[in-house]
Amino acid sequence: MGKYFGTDGFRGEANKVLTVEHAYKVGRFIGWFYSREHRAKVVIGKDTRRSSYMFEYALVSGLTASGADVYLLHVTTTPSVAYVVRTEDFDCGIMISASHNPFYDNGIKILNGTGQKLEAEIEEKIENYIDGGQDIPLAVREDIGRTVDYAVGRNRYIGYLISIATRSFKEKKVGLDCSNGSASSIAKNVFDALGAKTYVINDNPDGTNINKDCGSTHIEKLQAYVKENNLDVGFAYDGDADRCIAVDENGEIVDGDAIMYICGSYMKECGQLKGDTIVTTVMSNFGLYKSLDALQIKYEKTAVGDKYVCENMMTNGFCLGGEQSGHIIFSKHATTGDGILTSLKLMEAMLEKKSTLGILKRELKILPQLLVNVRVKDKEAVINAPSVKQAAQKVTDELGSNGRLLLRTSGTEPLVRVMVEAESDELCKMYVEMITEEINKVEV
User: From the candidates 99, 179, 182, 265, which is the catalytic residue?
Assistant: First the structure.
């Protein structure tokens, strides 16, 4: 974790944590770095936040001042930027978005030439430049970069998504919650082209309503909408549409764990699940692992963050991985989480198996889960305290094979996170209280 860049780019409240000066300097460094041997080509997309235009112009100024040519996709999704980068010979891509955060936050995600998140060592160099550790020359005369309208790139991405579908969606009633974000300009086009009867909510962005009481972080809106309109299925996206949470025909939530279970079991049946393995993070529910065991599907566990999931998948050649939050990666088709692609893969499983999401997830038994964040003075001292470790071991022993304890520190705040999964809500509460009581006793 760097000074400015976290696991998902440089993110913070616009003009407080992340300023136009930061964006300009990011553009200056990236433009210079990739133009050292040839004129760099950089593609930029943005979500619907009011500040996204401001950051887009700042990045463009910095990039062209350093000699790079910049191609603008305008309002689009993070996975569309990754697709354009890796298929159309760009040096890198930039997405302006703070994902599921409120409108007043924003972020700069940089993708390398293969459409994956930028290497940490380059992020460190950008941070050094931002803090005045390096001088970079300005381009002059004919070496100054230019800006190109590149909406055609977004249209090619839409065509690519449509080409992935294995069957027509004719007569299927599909609900989409676009979170007043990037999916608003793409998702309906895809489902309409595939023949679905498409019902859409929250697709009227105004610059301040992105993620506001809608989308994948407020799934209750889509749950009610699916039931009210007797829809076959619903899909909710976040602000930049790199995650998806689904709703089945009964209005019940199908989260990232359930999506991996449904798609993983279907892909294994088809002989498409490489290594018969799914890559998860440590936050996936213990019930998912027990259900995968029953299907003889293996699994890997990474740190929290789709960046780490992707790294594991690329290193080991696995084709399916993701997070409980709905970041799902299908490496045959994409290098990042892609909410709309995830929707299409769920539709494929439903149509090919002539079933519903409710039936497809029926055998998945998710355990009750309780997560509590405990604010402390020194999180490392607390989590390593002998009394806390002893209490954690006691809980782990008592849970045995019927649950688990996850104890970890926050990457950005002075918090210790205590998560317990057990066979009942009462057991979760009891074991969480045992651990938090010991945490609160630690003197630092």
Answer: 99
